[in-house]
Design goal:
six-stranded antiparallel beta sheet, alpha+beta, 168 residues, Thiol Ester Dehydrase, Chain A, globular
Length: 168
């Protein structure tokens, strides 16, 4: 298994602690993060187990969210532009029970780069599905135990903040 990138992991934990505490609670670890690929490890421990001693769906959803979202967050940070990032929907195929450390991988970096370039060029919302594969290397080797498809949505934020009351 790959070594943990501790600097990126600690930055993720700090961000999660401040903004999204449920992510901090499960302590994900960044194994790889670059413009093309992201790998996230969620350790299999009591706080992520369900009643049948496999990984809880919520923890699996967090791992999928991070594997796809961190590539986009890094690309947005490199662009130095303000861009909203969110996931519009999620679809999961659970092929086996996850009963060990789970590694979530997303290799849709080039697609995410294209999406970012498109929204920066035209200012419109761009939606595309990204695929996240889940493996449990210590238990099932390279076999895929779950597959997620999340629709990533990116939109450039214009510099002017609108007053929420004006929209009512």
């Amino acid at each position: 298994m790959k070594q943990v990138l501790w600097k990126k992991t600690l930055l993720l934990w700090f961000f999660a602690w401040r903004k999204i505490p449920v992510i901090f609670f499960i302590h994900p670890r960044v194994l790889e993060l670059n413009a093309n690929r992201c790998e996230i490890l969620i350790p299999f421990r009591n706080r992520v187990k369900n009643h049948v001693r496999s990984m809880y769906f919520g923890a699996l959803a967090v791992g999928a969210d991070l594997a796809g979202g961190l590539i986009a967050m890094e690309a947005i940070a490199r662009s130095r532009k303000k861009v909203n990032l969110l996931f519009k929907d999620i679809q999961g195929d659970f092929l086996r029970r996850v009963e060990g450390d789970a590694v979530f991988s997303c290799e849709d970096g080039p697609l995410i780069q294209e999406m970012l370039a498109e929204t920066l060029a035209n200012g419109q919302r761009v939606n595309n599905p990204v695929t996240i594969l889940v493996k449990t290397p210590k238990i099932s080797g390279d076999d895929i135990v779950a597959r997620f498809v999340l629709t990533l949505s990116l939109k450039t934020i214009n510099g002017k903040k609108s007053n929420r009351l004006e929209r009512l």
